[in-house]
Queue: 3 jobs
Job 1
Amino acid sequence: MTLPNGMRIQHWQKIETDYLYKEIFGEDSVYAKGNFIAFRPGAVIVDAGANIGLFTLFAALRCRGEAEIFAFEPIPATFSVLAANAAAARRGDFAAAMGAPAGASLTIHAINRGLSDTADEVIFQHHPNFTMWSTQDADFARQRLDRFVADVAGLVRFAPAALRRAAVRPVVAWMGRTTKVAASLVPLSSVIEEYRIERIDVLKLDVEGAEVAALQGIAPAHWDIVRQVVLEVEFFLTKDRVIEMLEAHGFETYWYASERERYSTARSEVCMVYAWRGEDRR
């Protein structure tokens, strides 16, 4: 598939890739909002919940093809596509689209693991038709489906609410179909030690209900090397908890309800949270 920005990538479902492209690269990109997160050439970036690698490519583009990126994806089938796109980026296939100068060095470590608070082997609820929904938390998945049905039904106003919900359920059922897949989890601190990472300029988390656990996987000795964090959370209570954690570690923060801003009828609690070190902005 060729993206609107000219990058020819491997992917799974066009409907999903189109959605992710708009969210990541689009005019209203959640990762460019307010310039809360700064991307600079030479940055070290962690992409947790990388899926097929669109944020990885976005971050590389924002760094003009000069970055070291650690891209984590726990689902083996999805990881295979991430690995293919990472290999293409390393070959220089996207250098022109990224505006990379001659001699730019782009390193992407595609890692077939997810981030959590401890090392573990777990079973994921994998969504083969909408891979970005894959999660190890079955309750989280059910709550999200119920909320999504209500929000999508709210966009259709020509019929009674019960009929609208019935109309969207077949599509949601297709998106929500799951298979069980074994996957490996590791704490970020173990990766920091394994690769001897000395700084993380941007930590991005889109880990479908595992945000708190992923942050808990950063040992006290490693928090200072993390300079910026951007993450998506599904519920306001989770947003409050991660902001409390980030501010306790010295970050300044900002958040907004991204889907409510995008769709006026949505009751979704999906939020984007941004965090940065104040001393880095002075």
Job 2
Amino acid sequence: MKIKENFLFKIIFVSYIVIFTLIIDRIPLSMILIGTSLAICWLIYPFFIKFLKKEKDVQQIKEDGPTWHESKTGTPTMGGLLFILVPILLGISFTIYYLFTQVKLDQIRGIISLTFVLLAFGLIGFIDDYKKVSKNQNLGLRARDKFILQILAGLIYLFLSPTQPFKNSKGLIISGLVFLFALIWIVGFSNAVNLTDGIDGLASGTTLIVLSFYIVLAIKRNNTAVILIGSLLFGAISAFLWFNFKPAQIFMGDLGSLSVGAFLAAASIQLNAIWSLLFVGIIFVGETLSDIIQVGVHHFTGKRVFKMAPLHHHLELSGWSEVKINYVSYGITLIMTILTSIILITN
């Protein structure tokens, strides 16, 4: 059954990649970026997985999670290292090239700021993952320390970004509120994707669909920075998902989830389409809200709304398979992406 599920997924996966590249066939650069990043990562991942197993950089499963997840213990983690590192290195190479062309300074700033987001939040996730694997437990950075580091990374990004909505706001108080909102937006979605990364292929698959939306929107709005880094990231995560779908051969770890979540938020800011992420990223929003509701209600009443939070664990305990949760989540994300595209891109 697992072989059939995996085979079906790969047929759907390849079909989606082909259809998406056909949609953007008018932009050869984006196709080249996706293809290059995908090919490099897809070829390297088998060796990377063996390396992580040899180094014993493996996942420890939470004791309070579903009992059947214990079988995942020993699966290599920190898979996000490759799908973050390859886009960063290729992005730097293209940035150097752009310095000698007629690309506008704001676009260069955009590329640098998006690259910084991947690097900074990836580094925070790396520290967290490293603490987990070195101590052979599921607890890494303390929540307070992680939050402080995320705030600092978000602050630096907002000052680096060419799109700074708080500068266009009237009055010091409104500017401050807009700045604070943008900061919370980045940190919030970084953690939202992290919460979603609880079963094989869920976070990576939904991220891929959301990324495709922002790449197309960037093409329509001629945003070189999001086209470049977004396309490289799309290709790299596509390769990762091939090895991450159930049964996963590798997990992205906090290194991957924190960085891609922050990237999606940053992309929505740079494209002046902040609110779009609430809709195309509805799965991330739902996972986060379920966790907040569970903690809040339990704190005040001692009762639980869900069998377990976040939402995907509740669905598992309700009898849903991981594959069913994935396909339903992909479908919802795709529908919301299409509807949001009709509203934003066609107008």
Job 3
Amino acid sequence: MKKQSGVIALMTTSLLLVVALVVTMGAYKTSLYEIKRAQNEVESRKNYWKADGLLECTLGYLRSSGKSIDVLEDASNRPEEFTAGCISNRGSVSLTVSQDTDYVLTATSNTNTLTRTMANGVNQPKGAIQVSGDLEMVGTVTITPSVGAKVAGQPEDMFECTSVRFSDSFTFRYDSQKGFGGREYGYSTSSVNGEKKCHSDYVTIIGKDSIAASIDASKPTESPEFSKDFLPDTKMDLFKELFGVAGSKQNVTTISDDTKMFVKKEVNGTDCSSLISNHFPDEKKRGLWLVGNCEISGSVSESDTQGQMLVIENGAFAVNGTFVFNGLVYHKVDTTNTSVASSIKSFWQEKQTTNTVYKPYITADTVGVQFYSSTPNGGWSLILNTESQRWWVT
């Protein structure tokens, strides 16, 4: 009987040990799984932050260098300073840049992939003047261009520059009676913008012996008198570049009605000089959005307006006074709207009788006339929504 009790005790003990071992092994396996999962999570997060860091480094490089994103599209021909600063020191990471309407940056680190979409040049229009219609300048003209990327293989202070970016055509006509007669050339691009110098390939000089010079965006090579600072761009979308969204009627209304961005006012074709002068001294953040025909016949001297925007929407814009403005002037016109077209026509008809200085430049397609006493340092952005619209600067 005692022998049987001993066997039973031994078997019970063995069974308990087996159960304990199974439980211990199960717990150990669970712990191993948790440890492995934690290690994978740590590795995944490391890869995520590597990819995110690559995107941030890319954006930082574009901002600090002043280069456009298209220099990164060809992975085999990227700037050495970008590769050294953003790729080489991050291990197994890669960057691809693709473009449809917008640029898409894709950063990959092992199995982690992050993307970021960038509109091409949003809020940074390229060119001292951007125009989606026809622009004609008369007289003697000098333009200080916008400065872009450094020219590869050239001294550090040589840059790509853009005077006019246009989707249709640009015409210059020399007239000794217009502009400043003491200038050496009929048209010239200023080769220096602050401390940055434009490379000679990006400086246009047109002599006074040239009666007229034109360049068509569809065939720019047929106009050798213009250099690379005149940039044809048949796909430009200025509204999207400035505001980051398509220029639909709803988007235009939403942005113009945003009281954090703009003060919006209706104008009826009278002198806008006082409206502009009264707005900007007090408003350091909000722009001024004017709807309707606008004339500047008085004096506007607003030098403390860096980063500010003056918008004239769906009306003629006539500048015949002193106009000092260090922000961006944006003129958006849609004459496919019959009421807008009729209003502009009436405005110019009235100007032909009350102020004959405009008369030589008023044609069926004229939407803007500026006498070249000054221009805004932030540049002109002109959106003319039909091909049969013309802006004059004289």
